[in-house]
Design goal:
Blueprint: E1 19-20, H1 23-33, E2 40-44, H2 50-57, E3 61-66, H3 72-79, E4 85-89, H4 97-103, E5 111-116, H5 122-130, E6 136-144, H6 145-151, H7 162-170, E7 171-179, E8 184-185, E9 192-199, H8 208-218, H9 226-230, H10 241-247, H11 261-268
């Protein structure tokens, strides 16, 4: 008689799942994260537990967040008897990481985060994690290669965009290494890469929501100049966009990718006159 059970749940396209299976890549991520005994590590999307097993073996206090209910029994079977493993059945985009980490008696800002993020929600997760950056000493994330290139792009680079400036405002970012499609099951159609994000000290951004809005509007059409993207917006009181750019020493003919973080911060500061 054929069994109708399967030992490993299939990857779901609806969740954007691609399970990391290459042992060398797994080891490289673990070395990059450098988990220590009794150190709290939050893992978003443990999947079938490829990284989780290594983290548990290192003695870290692993807090794994998994949304896919089909994977929960497998993870409990593999790690449920380990005292240093906790499984949270939830959407990472709804988790209050501050409360979560305090619940496991972790010291604030000392926990680490690791994730093989589904590519269809990677931008949303990155933006969400900005609000919780104070909870972590560092994050090691697997993302689509083009997303990593975007968030690490220097001023003047064509890949630079809204997400670049947002991440640069709050993190030091460094691309660590690339991961080929055959390192996953099933293999994605795109290249992947691993990036390290380290939260920066508090940046002097007076109004983070205004900063985010101005950067977003500034990149609305990347091939246009910064002046053309901002000139019809009522953002600068009685000043026109041209006057505000001039007051901050910014060439209105620059394209948005040419602006430095410091220039974006200047543009977002409240106009006093």
């Amino acid at each position: 008689m054929k069994s109708h059970t399967r030992s490993k749940p299939f990857a779901k396209r609806s969740f954007g799942q691609n399970f990391l299976s290459d042992g060398n890549c797994i080891d490289k991520i673990i070395r990059a994260l450098d988990p220590r005994p009794d150190e709290t590590v939050v893992e978003i999307g443990p999947g079938r537990g490829a990284l989780t097993g290594k983290l548990v073996e290192k003695g870290s206090n692993v807090v794994a967040i998994e949304l896919d209910t089909d994977l929960i029994p497998l993870l409990r079977q593999k790690f449920g008897d380990r005292a240093n493993f906790r499984l949270i059945e939830d959407d990472a985009l709804r988790v209050d990481f501050g409360i979560l980490i305090r619940a496991f008696d972790a010291e604030p800002a000392r926990a680490k985060l690791v994730a093989n993020l589904p590519y269809n929600i990677s931008t949303a997760i990155l933006q969400y994690l900005i609000d919780y950056r104070g909870c972590f000493s560092e994050m090691v994330l697997m993302l689509q290669k083009e997303v990593v290139e975007r968030i690490t792009a220097d001023p003047g680079h064509k890949e630079r965009g809204y997400l670049t400036v947002l991440i640069e405002a709050y993190f030091e970012s460094r691309k660590l290494f690339e991961v080929p499609p055959n390192a996953f099951r099933p293999a994605p159609k795109v290249q992947s890469a691993v990036v390290r994000l380290i939260p920066k000290p508090a940046l002097e951004i007076v109004d983070p929501k205004r900063f985010s809005r101005i950067v977003s509007l500034g990149f609305r059409q990347k091939r246009k100049t910064i002046l053309n993207n901002l000139k019809n917006e009522k953002l600068f009181g009685e000043r026109t966009a041209l006057e505000h750019l001039a007051a901050n020493g910014i060439d209105p003919k620059l394209r948005p990718e040419d602006l430095t973080l410091e220039q974006w911060v200047l543009l977002s500061e409240p106009v006093l006159d």
